[in-house]
Amino acid sequence: VEPSYYADVEFEVPPEIEKAYGGVNELVSKIQTELQALCYQQFKATEQRQIVERISKERIDLRWYDGKPSVTSIIGWDADFHISPEELREYASHGTLYHKQVEEYIKTGEWKDVEKIDGTWADLVIVKKGKLALPVNDWDFPAFLKKYPITEMKVGSPVISEKHFYAGLPDIQECVFDGKRSLADVKRTPDKFKNFKQIAAYIMAAEEMGLAPYEQMIIIPSTSKTEQGFSKPIVSTEISQFKAAFLQDRENFRKRFGV
Predict the structure, then answer these.
(1) How far apart are CA 106 and CA 124, in angstroms?
(2) Which of 204, 205, 208, 244 could potentially form a cystine with 159 if both were Cys, beta carbons 3.0 to 4.6 Å apart?
(3) How many other C-beta atoms lie within 10 A of the C-beta of residue 99?
(4) Cα–chain-centroid distance for residue 86?
């Protein structure tokens, strides 16, 4: 059953108002147009919600922010088809633990094991009980910062693009590296093309929200494969190029899921 909406309004028209609108019929026509627009807006909101609900049932691995597809889902929906939803949840929770560690460090200046950080329990259970056996507490962010000083760091918060209808959560929303204003994200296994598309999407949404332009993008490898517990950051200033690549992914996602 398709949703329907109805709205009406009762009003008295003082002579001066009637005169201003050129007569009662003209005023009624204007109000009808406004009511129709209101009903249509409600209809589209319901339609959007139903689309999201349908997709969420089809693809439980996709992530949403207030009804908007996440940046990672837009980029990875077709690339990760060979990975089970359970494994994707493990990777997502593992990434969330990295985010929480960085967030706690920026806020307090203290590097903590994930078990000691509030709000990590659910993701920690998913990772520790998962079959991928992903490691936790396996990298040294403070040591990385000593070698590669990143300053003026600000905790990542959700960025939303109303224009392109997506949202996401960067790890480090603002920072300065080599004198350039940057946005940075932590990655266990860096993939430059995929990760820079993700960061460029965050930048595009952040700039749409009124944040000043960014000069570069940074991938911070959170590897445990080196003796020092960190690796060299991967940096790019090709923001516009990767914005364009992400927008192509966004269009492909829209064609596939209708949202």
Answers:
(1) 20
(2) 205
(3) 20
(4) 21
Query: Going by C-beta distance under 8 Å and a sequence separation of 6 or more, which residues neighbour residue 69?
Result: 62, 63, 165, 166, 167, 253, 257, 259
Give first-to-last CA distance, the chain, whole Å: 20
3-state secondary structure of 187: strand
Helices (H) and strands (E) in the chain, counts: 8, 9
Question: Is 199:185 a contact under the CB 8 Å cutoff?
Answer: yes
For residue 215, CA distances in Å to 174, 184, 205, 241 come to: 11, 11, 15, 13
For the chain, 259 residues long, give each residue's pLDDT as a single digit of tens.
Answer: 455 555 566 666 667 665 666 666 676 677 777 767 766 566 555 545 555 565 555 556 688 888 899 999 999 877 655 678 788 889 889 999 999 999 999 999 999 999 999 999 999 999 999 999 999 998 889 999 999 999 999 999 999 999 999 999 999 999 999 999 999 999 988 999 999 999 999 999 999 999 989 999 999 998 766 666 678 999 999 999 999 999 999 999 999 888 8
Measure the CA–CA gap between 147 and 160, rounded to whole angstroms: 33
Q: H or E element: which one contains 107? A: helix 85-108
What is the four-CA torsion angle of 104, 140, 129, 117, rounded to 10 degrees? -20
The total number of residues written for the chain in this structure: 259
